[in-house]
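Hi U.,

Before I forget, here's the chain from the pilot set. I'm dumping it here mostly so it's searchable later in email.
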Amino acid sequence: MIRRAWALAAALLLVAGCKEEKEAETPERDAGAQLTALEVLDLGVRVPLLSSWRAVAADETDDEGARTVAAARRLPERKPFLAVPRLALTVQETVMQEPEPIFRDTLQELKSIGTKQNVQVIRTALSSRPIAGGTIGDIEMVYTLIGPNQTSKTIVHRSIVALRTRSDESRAIVTATATYLQQDRELVGAEVQVMLDGFELFKPQKTTP
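Structure:
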């Protein structure tokens, strides 16, 4: 089974995002690097960034070896987000050779969050489509996280998944994942759609260790 930690990470974002916003001493618009895309060069993947998003430091590995190699967050406008919308690229090594089983396994892994007592999965969707350079999977899941005193927040999770082969023939799964609160969908949802629609595959580039 291919582990995907992003559904749980989105739930944790509810707490981390609030803390991050409260502790910030400088305006969010001044924080982070102004990049135009998140990239994984050795696997030939690029996701465009809108100007309302800023790249942030990312170098994390979960217990199953999935690495977060690039990330960005949405800048606030009139007031801070309760949970900062986030876009991240993860890479996980694999020996799998076909993309469709990876897409299905990823969705099943995400849906398993619904077995937790404080989580209710509202809907899931999976589709795949060919693009120049390969086939990608498009996954959406909406779920509600029930917190203390029965307070609840509904979270939207969007992922684009691709199986990629490096120049040395090693393979990896690259996932672009966006998470944000349902209440921010009117503002953030269209932006996420534009960025994920711009998910691009190109010839993998050799990189030095």
